[in-house]
Design goal:
This protein is an alpha+beta fold. It has helices at about 20-25, 30-45, and strands spanning about 1-5, 10, 20. It has one domain (about 1-55).
Length: about 70
């Protein structure tokens, strides 16, 4: 998992799916709600990154673009 420099949570560096932790915090989310967001990200993680699969697509934002 990665928390990007702009507050988005990625459950894999090779994923395009991001959840905005920053937006949740700014909207007054409780600690329990933030914990739920983190749990959901873990639960939705694919079993592997599929980088060697023929249909693999590189993420639109690379590691260097997300603060990595």
């Amino acid at each position: 998992m990665r928390l990007t420099s702009d507050g988005a949570l990625r459950n894999c560096l090779f994923s395009d799916d991001e959840m905005s932790v920053r937006e949740s915090i700014r909207n007054g989310a409780s600690d329990e709600e933030i914990a739920g967001l983190l749990r959901r990200a873990v639960w939705e993680k694919f079993p592997g990154h599929a980088i060697n699969e023929p249909d693999f697509l590189r993420p639109a934002r690379s590691m260097s673009m997300i603060g990595g």
